[in-house]
Design brief:
single chain; mainly alpha; Arc Repressor Mutant, subunit A; 7 helices; 75% helix; elongated
């Protein structure tokens, strides 16, 4: 599973193809899914999504990117999909979240 996690982190900006990852590990897709979830407490696709969104957040903070560009760079083709997923993971719109983090860092 460490190899799968490393692969997902390294290729966060690419589409997730479970069949390919499972095949690389010599597992069935369902076996990979269940084993991954037992090790990480999340599904491979959810883990992948979290890595993408965390990287986008880092880009918005560190590289001063706007949400559209950060979302695109981490593999989201649809800005509204990115915004919806970002809000779901971090509890609010990206612009407000980034402003809050910056405000906390200035204290």
């Amino acid at each position: 599973m460490a190899k799968a996690v490393e692969n997902l982190i390294e290729h966060f900006d690419q589409s997730l193809i479970m069949e390919d990852i499972a095949r690389e590990l010599g597992m069935s897709v369902s076996g990979f899914y269940h084993h991954f979830k037992s090790v990480t407490a999340t599904s491979p696709s959810q883990f992948h999504k979290q890595i993408r969104l965390q990287e986008a957040r880092r880009m918005m903070l560190g590289e001063d990117l706007d949400a559209s560009n950060a979302g695109f760079r981490v593999g989201y083709e649809n800005p509204s999909s990115f915004s919806r997923e970002y809000k779901k993971l971090f509890g609010g719109p990206s612009q407000r979240d980034i402003a809050r983090i910056r405000s906390n860092l200035e204290r």
